[in-house]
TrEMBL record:
SMART domains found in the cross-reference section: AAA (SM00382)
Name of the featured protein: Spermidine/putrescine import ATP-binding protein PotA
Keyword Ligase assigned: no
Domain ABC transporter as annotated: residue spans: 14-245
SUPFAM superfamilies: MOP-like, P-loop containing nucleoside triphosphate hydrolases
Keyword ATP-binding: yes
Phylogenetic placement of the source organism: Bacteria, Pseudomonadati, Pseudomonadota, Alphaproteobacteria, Rhodospirillales
Pfam family, one: ABC_tran
Keywords on record: ATP-binding, Nucleotide-binding, Transport
Any single GO BP term: quaternary ammonium group transport
InterPro entries tied to this protein: AAA+_ATPase, ABC_SmlMolc_Importer, ABC_transporter-like_ATP-bd, ABC_transporter-like_CS, Mo/tungstate-bd_C_term_dom, P-loop_NTPase
Amino acid sequence: MTSAPVSDASTPILVVREATRRFGLVTALDRASLTVPRGQFLTLLGPSGSGKTTLLRIIAGLEEPTEIAELRIAELDVRGIPANHRNVATVFQHYGLFPHMSVGQNIEYGLLVRKRPAAERRRRAMEALELVRLPDKYERRVHQLSGGERQRVALARALVTEPEILLLDEPLGALDERLRRDMQVELLRLQRALGMTFILVTHSQEEALTMSDRIVLLNRGRIVQDGAPRELFECPASRFVAEFMGAENVFQGKVIAGADGFVSLLVGETVLRGRALPGSRLTPGTEAFLAVRAEHVQLATVGADRAGENLLPCQARLNIYKGNYHDTELDTPIGVVVSRQWDDTQSRQGKFAVWQASHCVIGPTGPNSPAAQGPGVTMGGKA
Ligand SMILES: Nc1ncnc2c1ncn2[C@@H]1O[C@H](COP(=O)(O)OP(=O)(O)OP(=O)(O)O)[C@@H](O)[C@H]1O
């Protein structure tokens, strides 16, 4: 293996610049760029077919990009370097374990390939098994393990080679709900304990929010937002992001006016106010979306004394019990608005749906979105 140049903690562990992958007429990945600092838990999130696995496989060396301007791992240019000579390890959804081998043999395989002596292999395999909390499974055959245990062994096998980056391709996809949640915590614990860079692929926004320092959201091969989970959750850069991140209430309208980081939007015949998406151009007449989460929509019995808040007359149409909370669907002049109540004692009988302007975000739809280039009036305002 080629030795990496000396690097300090401040140099990025990974740089991907302008990576494109086409399969015939399909552009699976379209000029994706990414710079990842050491020790980050980064998630590539997106719907099926958005290009996340393609990007992960390009990093791993399992997929050849059609075009790429730069690809560095720990400062080393890895373009053209085969997968087994890149200092990364990949964990797949279906484990990829050798069924005829024992747990110990599986974990040691990567070290055997690297011609490490038997005693060292054994010691490191035992350490890796400790890490994934399976210290007594060294002799076990793979087929004697549960799904969760197999995934832990796959993790141990990846970690034992001490890669610069651990790549995880939907590693929890085959596990049941309960186990998946346990393993989310387990992965996070491991990543924090090792300080290793993890790059996870998932299509679950809930998984991404739970685990990541940073989320890179893809749609149709393009990175559509890159930021901290809270940023994507509270400040979606587009209608797609708002909907993908689970905003229950998203409406379309036309900007009437804006000042001091706030915008008035005409939705149907109702004027609503919200925070302008930072960096967006929202001049009067701009087509824009408004997104507000159900937990910010409250029910009020009287419409008075609600200055500065958005207020819509409403009628409850459906109450949905969700365990810890209730969602109430409300008929309003702009369509159905969902309100969430966490407390059973809260009234679900209000006549008005109310939310504060600061609790909803307004951003341009289409070519006027923040990512678009060109001149225009830019709204200020803080998230
Ligand atoms: N080997 C291939 N040949 C042809 N098309 C491909 C190939 N691999 C991927 N694609 C296409 O490229 C696009 C992106 O695929 P990719 O697997 O990267 O998406 P994804 O976001 O990981 O999806 P999923 O969550 O379903 O795995 C899809 O339209 C897919 O059909």
